Amino acid sequence: MAESSRDRLLKQFRELVVERLGRINQHLMGLEAGANPDLGKAALRELHGLKGEARMMGFQDINALVHEMEGVVRAAESRGFALTGGSTDALLVAADAVMTLSGAAAGAAPPDLPRLLEWLKARIGAEASGQEPPSTLGAPGTPSRPAPVPTVAHATPTAAAVAPVPAPAPAAAKRTGEAKSDGSIRIGAASLEVLTGSVNNLAQIARRRELANRTRLGLIRDLSHLSRAAEQLGSVGADLAARLGRAKDAASELHRQEKLLANEELRDLGQMSDEVHSLRMLPLALLFEAYPRMVRDLARELGKEVDLAVHGEATRADRSVVDGLREPLLHLVRNALDHGLEFPKERSAAGKPAKGKLSLRASREGERILLVVEDDGRGLDPVGLRKTAVRKGLISEADAALLSDAAAMDLIFLSGFSSKDEVTDLSGRGVGLDVVRTVVRGLGGDVVLRSISKQGAAFELRVPVSLTVSPLLFVEVGDDRLCLSAANVARALRVDASAIRELAGRPALRVDDEILPFASIHSILGAAPERAPAEGELVLLVKSLGATAAISVDRVLEERVQPILPLRGMLSRLPHLSGATPLADGRLAMVLSAAHLLSSARGSASYRLTEEPRRANIKKRKIMVVDDSPLTRELISSLLDSVGYQIVNANDGQEAFDRLVREAVDMVVTDLEMPRMDGLELTRRLKAHATLRSLPVVIVTTRGSDADRRRGMDAGADGYISKGDLVRQDLVDVVARLLN
Questions:
Q1: Residue 371 is part of which domain span?
Q2: pLDDT averaged over the chain?
């Protein structure tokens, strides 16, 4: 059904209400901190505009409410608009009520409008006279504590009694754009995702076109060579040479035209890509804007005094990063308020100002965003943290004694760790900071904690600027191409024999007067045993978790900005992988986790899965994995081994067939393109064999077109999965379904 004019105007009105109330709340928080005529006048302008818009749309209750809000602010004009805490409480609760009455806050309970209007009128009198009105309710404006109905004529209601604080309803993702009066257009999140995906796909097509151009050049060279060879045949080859020459000229002209078209497409694609990615970039002000109000309310609820400072609101990040940071930031701010900052008396006794300091800072470091949550509270006591971890059974007393102070502070990121025994709305449930680390690592970032006991703590979150595209450094490992975020690589260097060291019994390298842990990428991936660095080999200095490690690779190929695909199913549980990226030839390159590489080099991580889901429910059945790529073979083998299957490997179809004739297995999982015998021929031979024809065969390949699938199924394959689908589909489920 077409949207009516009234519905369209109502939608625009609600959006304006959310925007205006956001600015009004910021102005009110500033006025509570002290006199500021500019903020006061700005608040009056916003309130006056909101009142007029509500009147035009027929919202008489909002009109009446905002009129009284104006009156409260105007009553403080003689004092530079410095508002008392009671008036700020009333105005903030009234702002929440406006949100509810407009319909912009879905699911919120309706406010008690008569009592709220009475409260605002009482605040107008208080601001004008400089005297607080009488109240039987104690301290007014405590948002979370319900109060009895007042019995005094001018009693001040509490916030909870008149308007529960509503949360703005998240807008549904839409596929349409909406024009605004300033000439800009509002684009729905779903539409933006479609645009981003289309641009990334076009970029991959452009790279494939470049490969096709190189193939055409090779064809032109071959035609030229054939033409010259034909000329050497004398009169017999003259006609052939002429035809080949004309074919070469035609191919050259086609190549020239195609190159011109490709250059024009690349220019337009580059401009479109830049525009789409700039549309995705949002200021972190959108992340921070709710915190002044939230910190104020929670501090008052806890009986603490807190001064919040916010810096770096203009720092921009991809919308997926901004959305992903909301939960970690909320946990850290609540943790600082509840655990970190002391009560005023406690601070005064320690020689600190009664009002604690909490800061949110954002800045950009190359292709990463640094977000810091810092307080000047209690800080962390390593001794106390060790005792808490032992008491909760998270580690043994012997292990706790071996922990350094830095490692002891890292205990707070363990699931189930909490230094509080009592359960409150904010703490004591054993959840929180483990969620922070999990979510931030899911964003491809890391968390570092810095703290001094009794002086404060700072949590530093580093995440990529964008999750949709990122500069990736491609490396060669054996026959495979892998990559990792370029932002995590400081530099590459060759090992000098004099720099080889040992650190705590593990291989290490001395680089710039610093001893760094060393690991071979082959050993991290489980393809080779751990070893010492060798003179002359290539290493990357990988940064993560606030530390650096030297990781050896076979060869550095290139650095390129690439889209990153998320991992799904079993692949998402492999700790050494953080994503995948498509290559020009249709294959996928796996993106390595910098945090896992560093943990492996330090000896605190394992290549194998940490979880073994469904192992007990799966019978030990043998599967042969056939692939000429050692890494792909190891990857698929690890997926299946992790859930309890017995794995045997073969390097190509010929080796697999020879072994299958004399060795019994329950299934074959094979690549398509291999030397000697490919996957199609292997499948045909198995299905034609008298005793092996019933053996299930699954083809796993980079070729995912419908025609390729038909070829595989025609050959007799029981399942066909493209390696691209390995990112989106659980191979284990496919195997289990066929075996059962």
A1: 285-464
A2: 78
pLDDT band at 174 (very low <50, low <70, confident <90, very high): very low
Of 249, 282, 315, the residue at which a domain comes to its end is 282
The pTM score is 0.58
Number of domains in the chain: 5
DSSP string, 548-585: EEEEE-SEEEEEEEEE-BPP-GGGGG-TTEEEEEE-TT
509 bridge partner residues: 500, 516
Q: Are residue 591 and residue 629 in the same domain, yes or no?
A: no
Distance CA 326, CA 332 (A): 10
C-alpha 17/C-alpha 11 separation (Å) is: 10
Identify whether residues 652 and 671 lie together within a single domain.
Answer: yes
Distances (CA, A) of 25 to 21, 361, 422: 6, 21, 33
CA dist., res. 584 & res. 702, Å (int):
12
Question: Most confidently modeled of 247-251, 262-266, 472-476, 723-727?
Answer: 472-476
The pLDDT score that the predictor gives to residue 347 is: 92
* pLDDT at residue 122 greater than cutoff 60: yes
What does the CA dihedral 93, 357, 26, 19 come to, rounded to 10 degrees? -90
Same domain for 408 and 531: no
Any residues with CB less than 8 A from the CB of 625 and at least 6 apart, and which?
Answer: 633, 636, 637, 640, 647, 648, 649, 650, 669, 670
Q: For residues 288 and 330, what is the distance between their CA atoms, to the nearest angstrom?
A: 10
- Checking if the pLDDT of 155 tops 50, the result is no
How large is the angle between the packed helices 679-688 and 653-662, nearest 10 degrees? 20
Residue 359: name the closest of 261, 277, 460, 264 by CA. Answer: 460
Residues in Cβ contact with 514 at an 8 Å cutoff, skipping those fewer than 6 apart = 548
Bigger pLDDT: 589 or 631?
589
Strand 356-365: give its sheet, edge to edge: 306-311, 356-365, 368-375, 456-464, 446-452
Tokens of 694: 């019933």
- Contact assessment for residue 118 and residue 163, using Cβ atoms and an 8 Å cutoff: no
In this predicted structure, what is the pLDDT of residue 111? 86
Whether residue 251 sits in one domain with residue 397: no
Check: CB of residue 467 under 8 Å from CB of residue 443: yes
Task: Please give the share of the chain, as a percent, with pLDDT higher than 90.
Answer: 15
What local confidence, expressed as pLDDT, does residue 166 receive?
41
Q: Which residues contact 429 (CB under 8 A, 6 or more apart)?
A: 418, 423
Residue 612's pLDDT is what? 38
CA distances from residue 346 to 341, 354, 573, 682 in whole angstroms, order as listed: 10, 8, 45, 76
How far out from the chain centre does Cα 583 lie? 22
Nearest CA to 669 out of 593, 616, 619, 726 is that of 726
